[in-house]
């Protein structure tokens, strides 16, 4: 085993232990997917989970990427790759399985798209949507070897390409979009960060159960805002309501009315 493969295996095991990952396919994907294939050449600006500022890796050795660190995509915008332990935990929580059709809204440079590709396998599909044209172009290039992944430059609030077993949103919104709920297959799962203007909030998991939905808060988060996320005090109040209501007990509803659950 090469030094880099060994580092990748240690990284997968670290995340497995830290987050108590239950999916063997997820752990195997973390150990298999080269993180360096989804970044510009190093050195890289990296930041720990608790870090307030970036530090530059001492050189371009990819071994520096196999730790639980954020890597800057655009440091000026505070746009990062995503913390591996956080997104591994969320992929595990939402229950991505072999043969699933997964829609990923906000795929960035595609690293977690590749991880999802490995989990769903050759009979599954991943639709990776990115609204930033430059990021989408790079993700298309990086993900070309992953034949079960399609990358599109588009708006995940307008089109998700049809019914999905899992929809994962990688940006903050004030409330779930009705399209996402309509697109869930029976027992389909939606994972969406509902945040305020300061980027703080909670990740909500919503499961389709027949004609109804069940929502619960699963994780606190700070994340980049999604395209089209409202920027008013009312939007903040809606996001706050979701976080409070879904953290107390599973929230059951049939649809949405002005961003809030409704039984109408």
What does this structure look like?
With 264 residues, the protein is of the alpha/beta class. The chain is 30% helix and 30% strand. The chain has seven helices and 14 strands. The chain has helices spanning 3-19, 24-32, 84-94, 111-120, 133-142, 178-182, 233-248, and strands spanning 45-48, 55-56, 69-74, 79-80, 101-105, 125-130, 149-153, 164-169, 184-195, 200-209, 212-222, 251-253, 255-257, 260-262. The chain has an eight-stranded mixed β-sheet with strand order 7-6-5-8-9-10-11-12. A four-stranded antiparallel β-sheet has the order 2-1-3-4, with no helix packed on it. A two-stranded antiparallel ribbon has the order 13-14. The radius of gyration is 18 Å and the shape is globular. The mean pLDDT is 92.
């Amino acid at each position: 085993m090469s030094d880099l493969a060994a580092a990748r295996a240690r990284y997968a095991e670290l995340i497995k232990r830290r987050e108590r990952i239950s999916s063997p396919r997820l752990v195997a994907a973390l150990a298999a997917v080269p993180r360096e294939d989804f970044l510009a050449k190093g050195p890289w600006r990296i930041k720990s989970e608790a870090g307030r500022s970036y530090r530059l890796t001492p050189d371009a050795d990819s071994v520096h990427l196999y730790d639980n660190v954020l890597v800057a995509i655009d440091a000026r915008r505070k746009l990062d790759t995503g913390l591996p332990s956080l997104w591994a935990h969320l992929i595990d929580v939402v229950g991505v399985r072999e043969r699933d059709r997964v829609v990923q809204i906000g795929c960035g440079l595609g690293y977690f798209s590749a991880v999802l590709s490995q989990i769903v396998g050759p009979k599954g599909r991943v639709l990776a949507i990115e609204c930033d044209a430059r990021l989408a172009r790079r993700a298309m290039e990086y993900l070309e070897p992953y034949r079960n992944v399609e990358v599109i430059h588009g708006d995940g609030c307008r089109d998700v390409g049809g019914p999905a077993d899992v929809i994962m949103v990688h940006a903050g919104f004030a409330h779930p979009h009705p399209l996402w709920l309509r697109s869930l297959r029976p027992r389909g799962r939606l994972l969406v960060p509902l945040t305020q203007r300061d980027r703080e909030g909670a990740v909500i998991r919503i499961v389709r159960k027949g004609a109804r939905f069940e929502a619960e808060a699963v994780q606190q988060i700070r994340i980049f805002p999604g395209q089209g996320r409202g920027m008013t005090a009312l939007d903040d109040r809606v996001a706050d309501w979701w976080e409070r209501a879904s953290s107390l007990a599973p929230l059951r509803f049939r649809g949405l009315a002005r961003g809030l659950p409704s039984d109408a």
